[in-house]
Amino acid sequence: MPTIKVMSAGAVKAMVAALGADFERESGVKIDYNFGTAGALRDRVKGGEIADLVVVSQSAIAELAALGLVVPATVTDLGRTVTGVIVRDGAPRPDISTPEAFIAALRNARSVAYTDPKAGGTGGIMFAALLQKLGLAAEVNAKAVLGKGGFDVSQLVADGKAEIGTTFISEALPVKGLTVVGPLPGDLHNTNAYTAAVHAKAANRAGAEALLRKLTAPATRGRWSEAGLEPAFPG
């Protein structure tokens, strides 16, 4: 049976897996999924690992394209993630209606979960930079509960191991026991684009291109939105 190796960031895992399952049923092609943080996957490709389709952050794809590791003509934006605030189901919802309210919520929380920037997750790197910008890094990190990725952060909050968390909403929605309070407010609002490209040494380029067409079919836009992702391809 033909196989397509896919390396995909966790931020778009829900849709890559869901549409990938449809593709497998329709084509008879088996997908070998490799999910991880965008930074870790980028480094694996830079280190010589070969996949058929690579789905990471837009900036990471640009870096790989500059190194000749992906086919420029196949670079395709899939969706934009939105950073949000999450709490456990039934827990009080903090006021995050303004940047000032969000800052107060971080200060008032007993513990805050977010992705460890050292894990290479785009969301964690961005949030760590935001804490520095707000002058809250030392205060929040003293009570931080760091996860390996957005799904891990979401599970920490759902399990009650952190009072509030921040991660991409698309990574929180599949986790049971969570409430998404909303996106970061005002000028703190953050989105990040995720992009796919066929590896320059893909063993199954035709299959990868077919899967990419499936991921970006206009009829799938509603499903991307339902998964907490803003479609970045034409309708």
Compile the SSE list and pairings.
Elements: E1 3-9, H1 13-27, E2 30-36, H2 38-46, E3 53-57, H3 58-66, E4 76-88, H4 99-108, E5 112-115, H5 122-134, H6 137-141, E6 144-147, H7 150-158, E7 164-168, H8 169-172, E8 178-183, E9 191-198, H9 205-215, H10 221-226, E10 229-231
Parallel strand pairs: 1-2, 1-3, 5-6, 5-7
Antiparallel strand pairs: 3-9, 4-7, 4-8, 4-9, 4-10
- Radius of gyration (CA) equals 18 Å
Beta percentage is 25-35%
Give the distance, in angstroms, between the N- and C-terminal Cα atoms: 32 Å
What's the SSE pattern? EHEHEHEHEHHEHEHEEHHE
| Major sheet summary line | 10 strands, mixed
Multimer state: single chain
Q: Structural class given helices, strands, pairing?
A: alpha/beta
List the total number of helices: 10
3D architecture notes:
The structure is a single chain. The protein is an alpha/beta fold. It contains ten helices and ten strands. It has helices spanning 13-27, 38-46, 58-66, 99-108, 122-134, 137-141, 150-158, 169-172, 205-215, 221-226, and strands spanning 3-9, 30-36, 53-57, 76-88, 112-115, 144-147, 164-168, 178-183, 191-198, 229-231. Strands 1, 2, 3, 4, 5, 6, 7, 8, 9 and 10 form a ten-stranded mixed beta sheet that branches. β1, α1 and β2 (30-36) form a beta-alpha-beta unit. The longest helix has 15 residues, at 13-27. It is globular and about 55 Å long. The two termini are 32 Å apart. The mean pLDDT is 96.
